[in-house]
Write a structure and sequence with these properties.
The protein has 10 helices and no strands. The protein is an all-alpha fold.
């Protein structure tokens, strides 16, 4: 954590795009946001820790919504959200200057957007947000891959028109992934 913090504090925005010192690795979007907060709150640990904390708070809401799509039982939702909020690992990651809480946030955001019941702009929104998430989280490509598999499965079992809707997200995700890596 301290080695990553040193990179964030001592480098400017453009230097964060290059490989980090001390064998540290983090997504570029995460590093840039961390640098922004450390600039807004200079010479304080708070500036480095605010982004993971914000990701934790938003993740609680997103988890509540995702669980709400999966289960309609109020007790199940309350228990799941309580376990999420009181999870010691998540509480620890919400205070650590590492990208792990951002990974949780991105995972929940992508699943929330996928499970949300709207059709008109769903693929466009998933395309844009998914492309941006590639820069925030190294695991986002795995989540996007699972979403694509479910859409393909639904397209094959229901009708072939769903497969045409997948062209835009897959293209934008592949371009973002290629540009990033």
């Amino acid at each position: 954590e301290s080695l990553l913090s040193l990179n964030i504090i001592t480098k400017n925005y453009s230097e964060l795009i290059n490989p980090l010192e001390y064998n540290q690795v983090a997504p570029i979007g995460f590093l840039e946001i961390e640098k922004l907060f450390s600039t807004l709150f200079p010479n304080s640990e708070f500036g480095l820790r605010i982004f993971p904390l914000l990701c934790y708070w938003v993740s609680i809401y997103l988890f509540y919504r995702v669980i709400g799509y999966i289960s309609k039982d109020g007790k199940t939702i309350l228990l799941a959200v309580s376990l999420f909020c009181l999870n010691s690992s998540l509480l620890y990651y919400s205070s650590e200057v590492k990208q792990y809480m951002c990974d949780v946030f991105v995972c929940l955001l992508l699943y929330y957007l996928f499970l949300k019941k709207y059709q008109n702009k769903k693929m466009l929104l998933l395309s844009i947000v998914g492309s941006l998430c590639i820069f925030l989280s190294n695991i986002s490509i795995i989540i996007l891959f699972t979403i694509a598999i479910v859409i393909i499965r639904d397209g094959i079992t229901q009708n072939k028109t769903n497969l045409k809707r997948l062209v835009l997200p897959l293209t934008t995700w592949a371009l973002s992934f290629g540009y990033y890596y």
